[in-house]
Fold this protein.
Amino acid sequence: MRLEEHPILNFCRGPEVTITFNGQSLLAYEGETVAAALHAAGVYHLSDSHNLHRPRGLFCAIGQCSSCMMVVDGRPNVKICITKVRDGMTVANQKGKGDLGWYEKK
Ligand code: FES
């Protein structure tokens, strides 16, 4: 769900883009975060805790807690609450700490 109107704020929505979440195409708007696009599509389970593998969702929404880390375009540990969508972006749930060797390969 996206807010369409607000009593004191004006929304200036960017053009439509398409992102892929776990192989499924989702509509998003340029300028919004990946977290906003996923929440609008009803996706609330973003990652799992490292030790007990419990589901994690959006918590701080300002890039401070690491609760929303996902794999974006193959890159693990991306905080999607502060990452803006880009047309063609791929996003996937992250299990545990992700592939930490990804950064050495780059
Ligand atoms: S929700 Fe806390 S870093 Fe993204």
